[in-house]
Design a protein that fits this description.
- The complex is a heterodimer.
- Chain A is of the alpha+beta class.
- Chain A is built from eight helices and four strands.
- Chain A folds into two domains: 192 residues, no CATH class; 40 residues, no CATH class.
- Chain A is 63% helix and 10% strand.
- In chain A, α1 crosses α7.
- The longest helix of chain A has 30 residues.
- Chain B folds into two domains: 111 residues, Beta-grasp domain (Ubiquitin-like (UB roll), Roll), CATH 3.10.20; 128 residues, Fumarate Reductase Iron-sulfur Protein, Chain B, domain 2 (Orthogonal Bundle), CATH 1.10.1060.10.
- Helices cover 35% and strands 14% of the residues of chain B.
- Chain B is an alpha+beta fold.
- In chain B, a hairpin with a 2-residue loop joins β3 and β4.
- A five-stranded mixed β-sheet of chain B has the order 2-1-5-3-4. Chain B has a two-stranded antiparallel ribbon with strand order 6-7.
- Classes of the chains: A alpha+beta, B alpha+beta.
- Chains A and B meet through α1, α3 and α7 of A and α6, α7 and α8 of B.
């Protein structure tokens, strides 16, 4: 028994990286969902646009967001590397392989589900992240009468917009913001995009029903006390509640707004 | 009174590890339903031998489900369509007259086909030799029960030790991963006092050897656990991960520079 090669280049090390990035991405989903629930507020996007500005300009959040981009890339690259290695581990496949009698469909197709999610992510970032960061969204001005609390919103031109700003004149709060809410509304009038989002959320659900509990198994966290809690969270929170609420967003804008 | 049946077998035939193989269809006639699957193959081989043809090679030894030699992926499942048994414990009453049965060897780069349905499983031996043992000094005979072991721990170690090294976990896994086997072998010593001295070196050495042999990576599908004839549990893999990560990140001998 000799001392051995570095931890992270072993099979278990690569699994560890998949597990840790996966759990981090799960925690992101929770934050992302809670923030985006503001889309359901009927306030012409006042709360959501304020939130979007905060999330893109508050330094600690920006630091975490770079961690997030890195996690997505690392999770995808390691998945590809592991899949290729797994393929190489069985160069000749079975003529007949009865997978459903010993394992769940989603557990055997994490790569396909992950690829659907990756395609979705590229579209999603291009539609909202890229447009928001490159001044390709409309601008809006909110005037709130601080005496009555009534808010009026109107679209403004790029010439009237310098940066996100909040000023108070004559007891009226004026907020000028990039109107990401409007961009969301606009994007989700496209039925093709709505369908893609709903399919991607279904893929996310099945990915996480296996992935969430799998991540803890890989970390070695297996105990009769907390495994039932992990399995419950994996199925009901990450497999049902989160994907369903996310999927409701495009459906809400397409059918209700 | 045994029922008799006629079967169509699609069997993988391969001359040796250098040549490519292919499926050959062989008729198995007048097979009694109380035969084991291996006895059915014996009947087929006697017929082939009578006709002067090369009999089908397949691994077998004890024929009572404890040696781990018999293999075969039967209709897409290691050890056939039942749970918790080896192929020698599978009986022909699990099949019906006129059925087509596809019989393939374990498929894994680390288990090359030697001939027909027999594969080379010495990769498992090399993993065992890398650390699946305890060093015991010679000397006087120790007293029985000199080392106290809690009953639950002894039971758990025994459960892990029931692994017969057949390789069904590798055959069932969509990634041809050997982690259930390796984790059972690491677990049985990690749990017992006798295994403590080499505990963390063992975890590293066995995982290293597993990777060197070219087995795939576990994706926690649970197929191995479902197909294991001895019911080795997935919790062994979680334990192996704990052992390995503890060895890599927290092992006392390596924590501080002396």
């Amino acid at each position: 028994m000799s001392n051995s090669k570095p931890a992270l280049s072993s099979s278990l090390g690569r699994k560890l990286i998949m597990s840790l990035t996966g759990i981090f991405l799960c925690t992101f989903l929770v934050v992302h969902l809670i923030g985006n629930m503001q889309l359901f507020k009927d306030d012409a996007g006042y709360a959501f646009n304020n939130y979007a500005y905060f999330m893109t300009h508050f330094t600690p959040i920006k630091v975490v967001s770079y961690l997030l981009y890195a996690s997505i890339i690392i999770h995808a690259i390691y998945a590809l590397v592991l899949s290729l290695k797994n393929k190489a581990a069985r160069p000749i496949g079975y003529e007949k392989y009865d997978g459903q009698s010993n394992s769940k469909w989603n557990s055997r197709n994490m790569g396909i589900l992950g690829t659907i999610i990756l395609v979705f992510l590229v579209t999603h970032l291009q539609n909202f992240w890229w447009k928001y960061h490159n001044d390709q969204v409309p601008y809006i001005e909110y005037r709130t009468d601080l005496a009555t609390g009534a808010t009026a919103a109107r679209e403004i031109q790029a010439a009237d917009f310098n940066d996100f700003q909040t000023t108070i004149e004559n007891n009226v709060e004026i907020v000028k913001a990039r109107d990401l809410y409007k961009q969301v509304d606009f994007a989700f009038q496209n039925i093709g995009l709505v369908i893609l989002y709903v399919i991607a959320m279904a893929a996310l659900a099945f990915h996480l029903i296996h992935g969430f509990k799998s991540a803890f198994q890989t970390l070695g966290l297996s105990h009769k006390k907390y495994v039932p809690i992990i399995e419950f969270l994996g199925v009901w929170v990450f497999g049902v509640i989160i994907p369903v609420l996310f999927a409701l967003m495009p459906l809400y804008f397409y059918f209700v707004k | 009174m045994a029922q008799h049946m006629n079967l169509t077998l699609k069997i993988w035939r391969q001359k040796n590890d250098k040549t490519k193989g292919q499926f050959v269809t062989i008729q198995a006639n007048d097979i009694a339903d109380d035969m084991s699957f291996l006895e059915m193959l014996d009947v087929v081989n006697e017929e082939l031998t009578r006709k002067g043809e090369d009999p089908v090679y397949f691994d077998h030894d004890c024929r009572e489900g404890i040696c781990g030699m018999c293999s075969l992926v039967i209709n897409g499942r290691p050890h056939g369509p039942k749970y918790g048994i080896t192929t020698c414990q599978l009986h022909m009453r699990s099949f019906h007259d006129g059925q087509t049965i596809v019989i393939e060897p374990w498929r894994a780069a680390a288990f090359p086909v030697l001939k027909d349905l027999a594969v080379d499983r010495t990769a498992f031996d090399r993993i065992q030799q890398a650390g699946g043992y305890v060093n015991v000094n010679t000397g006087g005979v120790p007293d029985a029960n000199e080392i106290a072991i809690p009953k639950r721990v002894a039971d758990e170690a025994f459960e892990s030790a029931t692994c017969i090294g057949c390789g069904a976990c590798v055959a069932a896994c969509k990634n041809a991963s050997a982690m259930l086997f390796v984790s059972a072998k690491i677990s049985q010593f990690a749990l017992l006092p006798q295994g403590q001295t080499e505990r963390y070196e063992r975890a590293q050495a066995m995982v290293d050897q597993m990777d060197t042999e070219g087995f795939g990576n576990c994706t926690n599908t649970g197929a191995c656990e479902a197909e294991c004839p001895k019911g080795i549990k997935l919790s062994n893999i979680a334990r192996m991960n704990r052992e390995y990560f503890t060895a890599k990140f927290f092992r006392e001998e390596d924590v501080h520079v002396h």
